[in-house]
Amino acid sequence: MDKPHTEHNPGRATALKVTAVLLFVCMAAMVKEATKEVPTGQAVFFRSFIPIPIIMLWLFRRGELREGLTANNLMGHVWRGLFGSSAMFLTFAGLGLIALPEATAIGYATPLFTVILAVVLLGERVGVYRLSAVALGLAGVMIVMAPRLSLDTQAMTTGAGLGALFTLGAAGLRAFVQIHVRRMVATEHTGAIVFYFSLTATTLSLLSIPFGWVWPSNYSLALMLGAGTIGAVAQILVTSSYRYGAASMLAPFDYVSLLFASIIGYFIFSEAPTMNMVLGALLVVAGGIVIIWRERTLGMDRSKDRAVTAPKGQ
After folding, report:
1. How many CA atoms lie within 13 A of 126 on its CB side?
2. 90-144, pLDDT tens digit by residue?
3. I need a labelling partner for 150 at 20 to 30 A (CA). Which of 48, 113, 164, 220 fits?
4. Where are the domains of the chain?
5. DSSP line for 133-171
6. What share of the chain is helix, strand, coil (3-state, %, to 5)?
7. What pTM did the predictor assign?
């Protein structure tokens, strides 16, 4: 997984990436449905625990089990797990309160926050192109969230308002994770980063047991088991896609998730996209694509960390 691309095959790379994006949206929909009955922490447990044996089997079949489970920077994995787990908690909590397409659109703020954090934490120099793209994208996020924004504190801390804030907070945390992973890939195997994140998230989710885990119905249990399995498969597909195509080429396909989310949201949850959602999402996508284009122009291909920080897979 840390090896160079073994083959330049754009068609295969695109197929793997788009399939992974679709699976991540399906996973989110299953979590959204399951959390109608089970608490968020319990959903995080299944999403995190189920992938562990799948990841280990995948590493074993690739002959990378030993290096894939070697942690050279233990505290780095701990911090990645803490921030990544927090992002997952917020994402799942937000899914239960707002529409799937809305959550997807707000989640697109992650690359915007990543640029900001790269300046603050890594000291990267950012020119007018990316600064303008960030401003455009953040304006889009505000348009998407506008119906949820209110001066009423109670309205902002309950229901859909709280869900939008949770989702935006998760986007910010995922950006921090991406910055952190950029540092980790210098010493850590990709498999180790994925494996220890799942292990940490599973452990932390158990701390939520006193807050009301339930015995799920067969339907909710099937949804959570399915979400965990699909999430693991999607993660593997994302990682595999970067073996056949550069990150800069594949990154725009992340935005196909809005189409999938809109279709699933409409037919499964009766959630029709609003004008605010469509307009705001277009601006966010435009800002994201400008950032991708500019990074490609500058030769800033970050395939390693993108492979382990897939869209909404936290």
Report:
1. 22
2. 999 999 999 999 999 999 999 899 888 888 887 878 888 888 999 999 999 999 9
3. 113
4. 10-307
5. HHHHHHHHHHHHHGGG--S-HHHHTSHHHHHHHHHHHHH
6. 75, 0, 25
7. 0.89
